[in-house]
Design brief:
The complex is a heterotrimer of chains A (about 170), B (about 425) and C (about 325). Helices cover about 20% and strands about 25% of the residues of chain A. Chain A is of the alpha/beta class and about 170 residues long. Chain A has one domain: Rossmann fold, CATH 3.40.50.2020. In chain A, the strands form 2 sheets. In chain A, strands 2-1-3-4-5 form a 5-stranded parallel beta sheet. Chain A has a two-stranded antiparallel ribbon with strand order 6-7. Chain A is globular and about 45 Å long. Helix content of chain B is about 30%, strand content about 25%. Chain B has one domain: Metal-dependent hydrolases (TIM Barrel). Chain B contains 14 helices and 18 strands. In chain B, a hairpin with a 2-residue loop joins strand 17 and strand 18. Chain C folds into 2 domains: about 160 residues, Aspartate/ornithine carbamoyltransferase (Rossmann fold), CATH 3.40.50.1370; about 160 residues, Aspartate/ornithine carbamoyltransferase (Rossmann fold). Helices cover about 35% and strands about 15% of the residues of chain C. Chain C is built from 11 helices and 9 strands. The relative contact order of chain C is 0.15. Classes of the chains: A alpha/beta (about 170), B alpha/beta (about 425), C alpha/beta (about 325). Chains B and C meet through helix 6 and helix 10 of B and helix 4 of C.
Chain lengths: ~170, ~425, ~325
């Protein structure tokens, strides 16, 4: 794997989180709750919850059990438990992910959320939208639209230890 | 007919002969070894260059079924004489059945078949069989095969009756109660796989009974398929006391331990069970020391009878065609000279049978011969075995030693293609 | 002396060429990472029971056949629930009464079900090794995408029970390396004991003890668990319980209570039954487990079974999640 020169320097993910928080802030109601998709989306959701001073911890979902490519790829080797520490019924949910791509992950996450109950509304907040959608899904908020050369180029959000700083990484899968 | 076997390497386990030489046969008997007798005119000559010329193998336990395919398998494996236990289908407890079997075997003109008569009627262990009538029908000794004879009172009577007429008794030492329901050696593998165990004591308790009763009655006793170190030790001790007792062990117990079962390999199910490595090593040493003969304990099983959960699968495997190669493998692993190794399947077996005309290359012996190429590699596979039922734990293994010619009474009954 | 080369069946038949789990037949031979991964996956399934919809679509469209050649409504039900929560179609076949009675062989039955496009067989059989025979047959016939889960074979193995036991222990005790685990009862006939010992040894348990009279122990019991982590044998329950962290009680089958192995249930309880007084010899925070169904007053006193230290019902709950984990890992190989 090599870093792609075309996208350097990469934008500051920390700053992008702040920008995303500001986009969301006007729509907040006491009924709003965040749900992040493991792993990048969960980190962003945690940042957003802090930036927006939300009283509740965000929910975290692992969509491994809802993936549509299970038959081909099998179970992800690192499944984490989905944890939604609140009742989703009649809540205004904001589903948070790091990158929006084909839309399949969002589809799986929506299915999983509806197995917990019937929310009043679900919005989608992402840091990056790299296009190439395969399903009729669009973000409610996005702070970075970008084009990547091909499917082999991966855009990943990473978290640095121990200070939990978020940063982007572009990798070329040979 | 006069036959000359030239340019071979002669091996006679009885005399220790182990050198190149020619062999001359007339009217089914060996008439000269080495120099051609004056005036001998060979009507047929076999060029045995590169081959070992040895006495035909004597398999002390083989249940040929179906008869034709297994007698063909026997000669393909260099076996010229096989002893058939009475637990065949049908049971050899009636003279007519024995006569029918030997007649069928003779008509095939392949290997020599020596039947063991049932010691008790129907092998039920209750009433004595008509031993004299069975002996007249060619039974060479009396046996229960793998069927138990748990009633020691009946056993004592059977020994007394057999001893009265000088009939040898051949029994597999296995206590019925201690081996009941058991399917594997009561050791590590059975513990791990949850298989019902047969303890070594099933063998030693039975041996103790058999040896004691043999000593009391004077019966000539042969113990079949001894499987344990403790069992070998008891036989050795009884022989040292001068008792007329002999024993054999199977080629499976010579080469495999309980570990061959792996994860429920039904091909490794035997009666008696494959035991520990220590037991296997004792069998190897006992056979090398001349305490035990070797048999194939050929008990062919149909595929359907093996493709069952381990405990339901039938014990036993094909072996007639493996006897030679597995004896050679044991010889090479234990660094035994060829005459000493082949003694376990020729001269020692003939001694057990009390047959001076078999199992050696001496003048006057029957010309039962096995001509084999010792370093010929072959792989045990369904298409290399002649026997109809092919299940064996040696499946897929590469062995050395392939028979080229087999002769019975001076007549070529097998010649490799 | 070198052993003759061993037949192919000697290799763990449940891992495929890439080392992935193709079948779950026994614990023995599974690497620690595989066991840990099953337990980790199970913990993700555990929360499912709290949702409005208690199922996930992972095995949608797959057919899971429960082949119970030996009756066990209880175990069958847990597999059925697990499969249904994964959205599989579950077909229960009570074979002890149907085909085998008509002379059809085990492998005939399997061939028939393969022709019906089965995706997974959950097999309970009275003969040790039966699921191995099935897995080997599937391999020979080229059915590489049909998976076998051993739901208990004879006295041999009950791997999902062992996994749920390990889940339970890990849930309450976290680290295995410092634990003393005491297994009490009929080890000889117990597939649970064999699988538990294999799993504890693979996960590196500190000390594994077995407690039973000699009549209920396999002769080579000390070799269970392998050379590195063999089980320590005790005949005295009090000594076996001393400072134990985990106590696993085994069920004593009715037919073994009066006969050649044991004189009576009463005498057994006196020596090997777990009472509050004997349990007090274990660590004060020791947990008590039982694979069920329990014989109260035979192997375990009611005060213990219903007491604070018993985690027997947790085992049942965890059992569903563990079975879901196993099925999903096999099906999505």
């Amino acid at each position: 794997m090599t870093s792609s020169p075309i996208l350097s320097p990469l934008p500051d993910a920390q700053a992008q989180c702040e920008k995303l928080a500001e986009l969301i802030r006007p729509t907040l109601t006491p009924n709003t709750a965040l749900i992040g998709i493991f792993s990048g989306g969960a980190w962003v959701a945690e940042r957003l919850a802090a930036l927006l001073s939300l009283p509740e911890a965000p929910g975290m979902i692992d969509i491994s059990f809802y993936r549509d490519d299970f038959a081909e790829k099998g179970l992800h080797s690192q499944v984490r438990p989905t944890q939604i520490p609140f009742d989703v019924n009649d809540r205004r949910l904001i589903l948070v992910d790091d990158v929006l791509y084909t839309g399949r992950t969002t589809r799986a996450a929506l299915n999983e959320i509806f197995d917990f109950g019937r929310p009043e509304r679900v919005d989608l907040a992402v840091l990056a939208d790299r296009g190439c959608r395969e399903l009729p899904i669009a973000p409610s908020w996005c702070v970075w639209n970008l084009e990547l050369p091909d499917r082999k180029t991966g855009l990943t959000l990473c978290r640095q230890t121990p200070d939990n700083t978020l940063f982007w990484k572009v990798e070329c899968h040979a | 007919m006069n036959l000359a076997i030239r340019n071979g390497h002669l091996v006679d386990p009885k005399t220790g002969l182990d050198r190149p030489g020619d062999l001359f046969v007339s009217q089914g008997k060996i008439i000269a070894v080495g120099a051609e007798p004056p005036g001998f005119r060979a009507e047929k000559t076999i060029d045995a260059a590169g081959l070992i010329v040895a006495p035909g193998l004597i398999d002390l336990s083989a249940r040929p079924a179906p008869l034709a395919s297994d007698l063909a398998a026997a000669v393909a494996g260099g076996v010229t004489t096989l002893v058939s236990p009475p637990d065949m289908e049908p049971t050899l407890d009636e003279p007519e059945r024995v006569q029918r079997l030997t007649r069928q075997a003779n008509d095939l003109e392949l290997a020599r078949l020596l039947p063991l008569g049932a010691l008790t009627r129907g092998l039920a262990g209750e009433r004595l069989s008509e031993m004299n009538r069975l002996a007249a029908a060619s039974c060479v000794a009396f046996s229960q095969g793998k069927s138990p004879l748990p009633d020691t009172r009946t056993l004592l009577s059977a020994f007394e009756y057999a001893a009265t007429f000088g009939f040898p008794v051949w029994l597999q030492p296995q206590d019925e109660c201690l081996s009941r329901d058991g399917v594997a050696h009561d050791g590590e593998v059975a513990a791990r796989l949850g298989l019902i165990g047969i303890p070594v004591s099933a063998e030693t308790v039975a041996l103790s009974t058999l040896i004691t009763l043999a000593a009391d009655t004077g019966v000539r006793l042969h113990l079949c398929c001894v499987s344990s170190a403790a069992g070998m030790e008891m036989v050795k001790e009884a022989r040292a006391r001068g008792l007329p007792i002999t024993c054999d062990a199977s080629i499976h117990h010579l080469h495999f331990s309980e570990r061959a079962i792996g994860f429920f390999n039904a091909d490794a199910r035997f009666n008696p069970p494959l035991r520990s490595e220590r037991d296997r090593d004792a069998i190897r040493k006992g056979a090398a020391a001349g305490e035990a003969a070797l048999s194939s304990d050929h008990t062919p099983q149909k595929q359907d009878d093996k493709q069952l959960p381990f405990g339901s699968a039938r014990p036993g495997a094909t072996g007639l065609e493996l006897l030679l190669s597995l004896t050679l493998r044991w010889a090479s692993e234990e660094n035994l000279p060829l005459p000493k190794a082949l003694a376990a399947v020729t001269s020692r077996a003939a001694d057990i049978l009390g047959r001076e005309d078999l199992g050696h290359l001496g003048i006057g012996a029957r010309a039962d011969l096995c001509l084999f190429k010792a370093d010929d590699a072959w792989t045990v596979a369904p298409d290399t075995l002649v026997s109809e039922n092919k299940s064996t734990p040696f499946q897929g293994q590469t062995l050395l030693g392939r028979t080229r010619f087999t002769l019975v009474d001076g007549k070529v009954v097998f010649a490799a293609a | 002396m070198p052993d003759a080369p061993l037949p192919p069946q000697n290799h763990t038949p449940q891992l495929d060429a890439r080392g992935a789990l193709a079948h779950l037949l026994c614990i023995e031979g599974l690497p620690r990472e595989t066991l840990t991964r099953i337990l980790d996956t199970a913990s993700s399934f555990l929360g499912l029971a709290d949702r409005e919809v208690k199922k996930v679509p992972l095995l949608r469209g797959k057919s899971v056949f429960n082949l119970f050649f030996e009756n066990s409504t209880r175990t069958r039900t847990t597999f059925e629930i697990a499969a249904k929560r994964l959205s599989a179609d579950v077909i229960n076949l009570d074979i002890s009464r149907s085909s085998t009675a008509k002379g059809e062989t085990l492998l005939d039955t399997i061939d028939n079900l393969c022709a019906m496009h089965a995706d997974m067989f959950v097999v309970r059989h009275a003969d040790s090794g039966a699921p191995f025979l099935i897995a080997e047959h599937l391999r020979r016939m080229g059915y590489d995408d049909i998976h076998v889960v051993n739901a208990g074979d004879g006295r041999h193995a009950h791997p999902t029970q062992a996994l749920l036991d390990m889940y339970t222990i890990r849930h309450f005790k976290q680290d295995f390396s410092s634990l003393t685990v005491t297994i009490v009862g009929d080890i000889l006939h117990s597939r649970v004991a064999r699988s538990d010992i294999a799993a504890l040894s693979a996960l590196g348990a500190g000390e594994i003890r077995v407690v039973a009279p000699q009549t209920l122990l396999p002769r080579a019991v000390a070799s269970l668990g392998g050379a590195s982590c063999g089980a320590r044998v005790f005949h005295d329950l009090r000594k076996g319980l001393a400072d134990a962290d985990v106590v696993i009680m085994l069920r004593l089958q009715n037919e073994r209570m009066n006969g050649a192995l044991l004189p009576s249930a009463r005498e057994y309880f006196q020596h090997y039954g777990l009472t509050p007084e004997k349990l007090a010899l274990a660590k004060s925070d020791a947990i008590v487990m039982h694979p069920g169904p329990m014989n109260r007053g035979v192997e375990i006193a009611s005060e213990v079974a219903d007491g604070q230290q018993a985690v027997i019902l947790n085992q049942v709950t965890f059992g569903i999640a563990v079975r879901m984990a196993v099925m999903s890992m096999l099906a999505g190989r």
